[in-house]
Design a protein that fits this description.
286 residues, alpha/beta, 8-stranded mixed beta sheet, 8 strands, 18% strand, Dienelactone hydrolase family protein, hydrolase activity, AB_hydrolase_fold, Dienelactn_hydro
């Protein structure tokens, strides 16, 4: 990597940290020892649905009527499990409709079954997954309660990589993307699990993206953060890159006790809802 590129990446990450801190300074900060409370009375129960004839999923909307912004939730390598559904429910509690397409068509894996989950992950085809996400976008666009001009995407682990790719594949339909510890966006060959680098797709992106990583994530090397930041900066794309201290891979999932980091999860959730509110909800006219 040229010295100029290294400087670009470092400058971009520093800028991202400043932007993230300025966003947080305008909101009430969570207690570092607790997660944000969930007001269960503010959302209706989600339900299992058929997004398309060959694609099952999970769907939930906030209480009330109107045109809701919506978020497509992309699952971890372990499948559309209880925790993934809880993310959808939690988004609905914050005023967003949420839909989670089931790329595995019903299969789920315990968090202890890493080998099984990785084997299933490797069986997925990027184009087929993007087709499933396209069907999810079409489903949302056809719902009277959804603002089709306010659709975002968030993904975790395997889904974090697909959130990055979705932002490039559907540049006019996705208005914001968040990638949580998206492994394989530009991994070294020994850590790629056969997945192709996505950095050649950066130029297609039109919407802002926020990338979330844990400092103790031994599955995603720090130099991958730099390569991603450099590619986005060179392409003049809007992004934020956040690194959370004392957090590893999977730090958002309360069902993954070995990796769950409550303080990082609480802060990251605040940033997630803030980012989507800024980019998916209609701007108020002064």
């Amino acid at each position: 990597m040229k010295r100029r590129d290294i400087l670009l990446g470092a400058s971009s990450i520093a800028t991202a940290a400043v932007i993230a801190n300025s966003q947080l300074s305008t909101a009430k900060q969570p207690d570092s020892n607790t997660t944000l409370p969930i007001a269960k009375s503010t959302a209706i129960a989600g339900k299992n649905i058929q997004i398309a004839k060959d694609l099952p999923g999970y769907y939930v909307t906030p209480v009330g009527t109107g045109k809701f912004p919506a978020v497509i939730v992309l699952m971890e390598a372990f499948g559309l499990n209880k925790w993934c559904r809880s993310v959808c429910d939690r988004l609905a509690q914050s005023g967003f409709a949420a839909i989670a397409p089931d790329f595995y068509r019903g299969a789920t894996y315990a968090y202890t079954d890493v080998a099984g989950a990785v084997a299933k992950l490797k069986s997925l085809d990027d184009n087929a997954v993007m087709s499933d996400i396209g069907k999810s976008i079409d489903f949302l666009a056809g719902k009277s309660e959804i603002n089709a001009n306010g659709i975002g995407v968030v993904g975790f682990c395997m889904g974090g990589r697909y959130a990055f790719l979705t932002n490039a594949t559907y540049p006019t339909k996705i208005k914001a993307a968040i990638s949580f510890y998206g492994g394989g966006i530009d991994a070294a060959p020994e850590n790629s699990m056969g997945r192709k680098s996505l950095l050649d797709r950066v130029t297609s992106m039109q919407s802002p993206i926020m990338l979330m990583y844990g400092s103790e994530d031994n599955m995603i090397a720090a130099d991958e953060h730099g390569r991603i930041a450099t590619a986005l900066s060179k392409a003049k794309k809007r992004y934020i890159l956040n690194l959370f201290p004392n957090a590893g891979h999977g730090f958002m999932s309360s069902d993954r006790q070995a990796s769950y980091a409550p303080a990082a999860e609480a802060e990251a959730w605040l940033m997630t809802t803030g980012f989507f509110s800024q980019n998916l909800k209609p701007k108020k006219r002064k």
